[in-house]
């Protein structure tokens, strides 16, 4: 961190900062220091990309051991900073997996509610036991039906993807790993994702 601060100060001192765009990738569990904010004002643009894979208790499960109340606080402060400073730009990345595909529309709605831009979504490929399309067709059909009720075009695109793709051969692995994770983390999949748990028990 100290080296980074020195680098920023170097560009400020030599007058090049006004032509430089900075990009940061963060899990939004820590608010940037006052010193950073002071230095960032000398740069052309500062992009802060927030990596968020869920909300509420689902965030804490997927991004264990992250805390949602900390995320909520940091996001609120960052949104306020973006509104205050013209050179601050926020973006959101959301990794779609077996744990959050069912709740994708909820996440888009949350972003809009808290003042964040539309999230960019990418799919988990590895580990294969976390792929968004690993559920048996019966479960995927239910997820597709739910996602198709959205007002967000991107969510509709994901409903189409999950209806056309099939990684269900990894579903047994998903069941094994989620139980193992609960055992060593002290978490509870069934309590955190009751809708998915009900669908799993119904097949």
Annotate the secondary structure layout:
Elements: H1 2-13, E1 21-26, H2 34-40, E2 45-51, H3 56-62, H4 68-84, E3 88-96, H5 104-114, E4 120-123, H6 137-147, H7 153-164, H8 171-185, H9 189-192, H10 194-201
Parallel strand pairs: 1-2, 2-3, 3-4
Q: Work out the number of β strands.
A: 4
Q: Please summarize the sheet with the most strands.
A: 4 strands, parallel
Strand content: 5-15%
Low-confidence region ranges: none
Number of helices: 10
Roughly how many Å apart are the termini? 50 Å
Order of helices and strands: HEHEHHEHEHHHHH
Tell me, rounded to a whole number, the average pLDDT: 97
* Integer-rounded radius of gyration: 20 Å
**SS-based class:** alpha/beta
Shape: elongated
Cross-sheet strand order for the largest sheet: 1-2-3-4
Provide the descriptors you would attach to this structure in a database record.
single chain; 4-stranded parallel beta sheet; 13% strand
What's the short version?
The chain is an alpha/beta fold. It contains ten helices and four strands; from the N terminus they run H-E-H-E-H-H-E-H-E-H-H-H-H-H. The protein has helices spanning 2-13, 34-40, 56-62, 68-84, 104-114, 137-147, 153-164, 171-185, 189-192, 194-201, and strands at 21-26, 45-51, 88-96, 120-123.
